[in-house]
Amino acid sequence: MKKIIVIVFLLSQVVVKAQDAKFGKVSQEALEEKFYELDSTAEAAYLMKKRWSYFDYMPSEGSFQLYTEYHLRIKIYTKEGFDYATKLITYYTPDSGENESVSSIKGYTFFLEENNVMKEKLSKKSIFKEKVNDNFSQVKITMPKIKEGCILDLKYTVTSPYAFYIDDVQFQLGIPIKYLETKIDIPEFYKYNKKRKGYYILPVVNNSKPSKIGDTDYTTETFTYKGNNIPALKDDEAFVYNVDNYRGGIKFELAQTDFLQFQGGIKNYNTSWSAVAKQIYDVSSFGGELRKSAYYKDEIEALLATRNNDYEKIAAIFQYVKKNIRWNKSYNKYAQNGVKKAFKEKTGNVADINLMLTSMLRFAGLDANPVLVSSRGNGIPLFPTSRGFDYVISSVTFSDGKYLLLDATEFYSMPNLLPTRASNWKGRLVKKGGASKWVSLQSSKSATEDTTMMIKFDEDLIAQGRIRTKFDNLNALRYRRNSNHVKEESLIANYEDKNNIEVEEFSVDNKLNISKPIVRNVKFESEDLVEGIGNKLYIEPLLFFTERENPFKLDERKFPIEFDAKSKEAYNVLIDIPEGYQIEKLPEPLAIGMPNNMGIFKYQVRKMGNKIKTSCVLEFKTPTIAPQYYPYLKEFYNQIVKKESEKIVLSKI
Amino acid sequence: MKKYFYITILLPLFSYFSICAQVVDYSSLSISPELKENANAVIRNQSTEIIIEDINQMVVRKSKTVTVLNKMGNADARLGESYDNDTKITNLSVLIYNALGEEVNKFKEKDFNDVSAVEGGTLYSDSRVKYLDYTPVSYPYTVVFLSEYKTSTTGFIPWWFPVNGYYVSVENSSYVIKNPNQIPWRKKQFNFEGFNIEEQESKNEISYVLQNQQAYVYERNAIHYRDFLPKVIIALDKFQLKGVEGNYSNWKEFGKWMYEKLLLGRNELDQVTVAKVKSLVERETDPIQKAKIVYEYMQSKTRYISVQVGIGGWEPIASNRVDQVGYGDCKGLTNYMKALLDAVGVTSYYTVVYADEKRDIDKEFSSIQGNHVILNIPDSSGKDIWLECTSQTIPFGFLGDFTHDRNVLVITPEGGVIKRTTSYKGEDNIQTSNARITLLPTGDVKAVLKRVSKGLRYDDKFNWESESQEDLIKKYKSEIWSYNNNLEVETLGLHNNKEEVTFTEKLEISIQNYATLNENEFLFRVNVFNKKSFVPKRYRERKLPLKISEGYKDVDQYSFELPNGYVLDILPPEKKLTTKFGSYNVLFTKVDDTHFNFKKTIEIKEGVYPKEDYKAYRSFRRSIAKYENLRIAIKKEK
């Protein structure tokens, strides 16, 4: 950011801070409250959560600083809520560059003693500062005299020289908020995009007021959000990546700075998705890294010498990068080591690897481009913002307009089969020069698991059987990633444990041949598959593959159910009817579906000669299910569980 | 150019050889097949050299060459060293070699990350760690990690623990400790038998070498690896700990030192607080009753927050400070409780213990041990009372599995004494369930259940009291009775009796579609509420002893009422299993044509058994697991 040059004599601006009469004072009634009225399960609640962010001009620096004042008042109802008596504030303190700071920490704990309101001050000894790593520090505060029913009042200010970066406004948290007030004051020199996130919104009130730096008049715009009785959104459900994405709030993203009044310039940031993409492209650790090629020239030339068509070239280069450069588990859209160093040291972050891959593909004459992605944990990019992207993959477009997506950070990935972390909704393909467009990241292929089992019983009703399971697409990728490095001994043990059988033979094909599905063959024995009551035998048609529990037990769901991909699971089980027995009863077939064809279940048990054949297919045609369909999903599974638990009944001849 | 290359590569190698005097081949190809078996990593050569320069000066030099065979082996090549205010790291470097033994990467101290080493549960600590965040580019690879640090704390000398767990084999591991000034010292060796260890000892030097040790495979329900792998601990009789000098050669002296240097004078209390607790107990004469009142007062006033700075890692925060802020760590809270008891004239002692995983303070070898502190109230008849001071909810005198049944060090003003904490075994840990179960013609079930838990079973549950109804119902549905689909909790009442240390649950439950119906039968699982389906994993060849770490007893008595229109046929005969690991008994009794009773008793005894017994234990548990699924059929009235 350009520093602002102000020639005129400056009076340091006096910020009139509204005196908050309430800090350090709470009512007896509030202390007497035993539980949160609107949600008796809350372990603690914010009685008040106030935030005020404002810009202040620093004449000595010639630039604006961003101040954010917080006033938090928390009521603790139960011992589980004691964690809220400790506050960690993380702030940016890079080894090189300007540091953020935390100051003006003040706090009180209020509690009742013999019906009197008592108050204990937060002492300096209960405040700790710690350098966490090269980039961040933490202030750790723990409040005194905490007991059930107490209230704490805490105030602090975060000062940041990175004025353009306004922290997200959070409306909703893991505990309820009784009163929330957030005020953001922005001088006219800065323009931001604001976009809401999650399922809880608060209205904004917009005001402006005249302000002055020296002789320069300008307008400060104030955005105020106020809310009462905001419910908690807890993080305790399955099939969700990051519950924060569904908690209400507002994101601020810098769109423009205009310092013409200070002889500075106008600079545009992200006003549209194409501007965001262009801006990212123009950063040297993105676009700059794409242009380098000298470092790999010899290797790739040699590699390409024997490849005749585009597909062979792509396969060779993709395999080369996956094999030679290891991902250091770090996400980013910008290169960390730089492609050259990553190439030399054979390790790098997401951008190091996939920008290198893109550059190599271009070098081979392909129409290769990076694709900006918001990883699963980062949520869906809602509005033009560079922070909306935290990941980058690569793509190749063919002359017919079809394209392939590639992510070389995952060793077991394939073209158009991305690891779950990257396959989130859609991504932004960025062309040379920075022009861009959306491409879908969702795989057209379902994650499949296809099982065939044959089983027969000896005279003691001990079962002998063979199982062949085929995993394809995302399921194959997951299998390879989770099991390829595990010793066979452990895989067998886990399989035995999970299914309560004894494995006699076990083999897995295509472990490294990633263009083919994983095929697992198992030969087993088990004493526990038949239940004898009187003269009858009871057998579950799917044996140990029976879905016995409904994974969805809660009555209500507040946010979407996120599966990793579309999926299809099929079972074909052939059971030899034990000698001396005949069929008395077989379960009836069932075929059901979810609304809009989102899920399908088909189930059939038939007699075929002296065998019983069960076929079962469970398919989900969408990777996410919206919360309004949750009751259907729960009922869908109820029916599956009920149907699969129906037994084959055999009787003695 | 070429010459230059030689010099740079020769220098580090030369200095390295001078330390361990052994030629190491960095290629992973030369590892013998036996050492690769079951190994994720192979310790090619590890050496620890400790020089006690004075009672307040120690230098530790470590060199570790590890070949990592696969992803899981990275944990055995931890590239980090801890330090704090009185420990200074003087050397750190890492070299990486590929499978062929060619050097591929090199890191110096500046490449290491320097971060705070705060463990979970600690708010602040001055201990820090420098570690290298290395991403392996291919397997196998070999790393050579050199480190050296100087410290003024000699109270804790690094142990020798050459085989650090499972799936790691050792080609060569050595340990040498030099004591040129002959400061009196003591050592203790553990589990040397059966290991290829050479030892040498003189007045001022002790050394050990272990060679060619194959990797162990982890087995479930086994003793801890610490109990069968070799280990040496060494302690100085005169030492310094975070600037405090010490002198001891047995627990009595150690305790006295600890009392005088770390505890004495830290138990003062504000007169207001003293008057307050005195007034609380003024009507009591029995010291135990007094202690109980004071304990509950302490629990209501405090919470656990851990801050470890300097000697604070060993010394409690003063009691008047805890009194003022209302928080402390285990040391601070225990010392505070002791001060409160002193104020009302009840004797108690600060006690050092290994918490969580069951582990004894070594009876014979005095050194700095333990990771937690509790309070002991002595009793002349041997029924000592033990107080856990970091929990706000645990009953007076109850320890639970966190610290029960182990040797602890009790610090008295006269010195240290080893005592054993209360234990909870077998029948102490009883859960009794009584249920009235009504079967309905639709196949649904209605039940009224009362369940009472004691001992460690109480420990598992007493915290439920503070959970919300919503979370509890979720727990019953998704965890405890997850094997019953469609289970609904209609009413729920919990009672935590802290006096008797019993936890009672009363529930009304309904389960839809519990039974399977066909034309003339009604089929259902009789064991509705306590299915023990645990079966120990099968091992083709068990290598480690069997350990059952927690004994318990469950008694379930259900009375069933049959649905309208059905009559009782024959009930299954009594089932009885008795083994050295415990017993299992299921008994059905017919009351009349529409009622019968079910009684199940299972008792499991804790203990360690030879590996040969594993099969028998597994078969015992298998038989139980199978019988726990028993269904019976009742017939439609004709």
In short:
Chain A is α+β, with helices and mostly antiparallel strands. Chain A has ten helices and 36 strands.
What do these coordinates show?
The complex is a heterodimer of chains A (653) and B (638). With 653 residues, chain A is of the alpha+beta class. Chain A has 3 domains: 2-265, Immunoglobulin-like; 273-440, C8orf32 fold; 447-652, Jelly Rolls, CATH 2.60.120.1130. In chain A, helix 3 packs parallel to helix 7 (350-363) and helix 5 runs antiparallel to helix 7 (350-363). Chain A is globular. By secondary structure, chain B is α+β, with helices and mostly antiparallel strands. Chain B folds into 3 domains: 13-244, Immunoglobulin-like (Sandwich); 248-420, C8orf32 fold; 426-636, Jelly Rolls (Sandwich), CATH 2.60.120. Helices cover 18% and strands 39% of the residues of chain B. In chain B, helix 5 (287-301) packs across helix 7 (330-343) and helix 6 (319-325) packs across helix 7. The model of chain B is unreliable at 1-23 (pLDDT under 50). Chains A and B meet through strand 6, strand 16, helix 9 and helix 10 of A and strand 6, helix 9 and strand 38 of B.
